[in-house]
Amino acid sequence: MPRPRTNDTEQDKLARFERIKKTIIALEKQQALLLKQGDMAASGAWVARYQVRQSLKKYWYYKLQAPIPYFQCATSNKLSKYKHLGKAGTQEHLDAVMSVFRRSVWDEIQRIIHTLDDCLLDISSGSEQEEEEPQD
Q1: How far is the C-alpha of 96 from the C-alpha of 87, rounded, in Å?
Q2: CA 112 to CA 132: how far, in whole Å?
Q3: Dihedral of the CA atoms 14, 118, 122, 136 (nearest 10)?
Q4: Which residues pair with 59 in a beta bridge?
Q5: Cβ(44)–Cβ(64) under 8 Å?
Q6: Among candidate residues 112, 110, 106, 103, the one with its CA nearest the CA of residue 67
Q7: Tens digit of each residue's pLDDT (9 = 90 or more) over 8-59
Q8: For residue 125, what pLDDT band results from cuts at 50, 70 and 90?
Q9: How far apart, in whole angstroms, are the C-alpha atoms of residue 30 and residue 46?
């Protein structure tokens, strides 16, 4: 099989570079759509279920929880790791669930964009194919 000519290789690199750039633009548009859909939870936040016991009864509630203090306390100027959401199915609970969903999708898209940026760097720097040192 004949080796590709240098011109063909450069055209191939340019075409792949452009396809990756278009993909990154499409992913960034998806991120913009996520921002329009509503609030985004703090990075690393999740919705947690917890139980309260009172006079022989158990109640289940939900809270939005962050790894570091993020939420404004209602009674002081301090920040808290927790935001009470109430019972399952309340609007505040569902909004929090969706904000965590949007954050996780946003973060995954961002990871993909970073990976594609590395691909662009490989193509543009010529480091896709490197010579290996012979091992003894």
Answers
A1: 12
A2: 28
A3: -160
A4: 52
A5: no
A6: 103
A7: 588 898 999 999 999 999 999 999 999 999 999 999 999 999 999 998 999 9
A8: confident
A9: 22
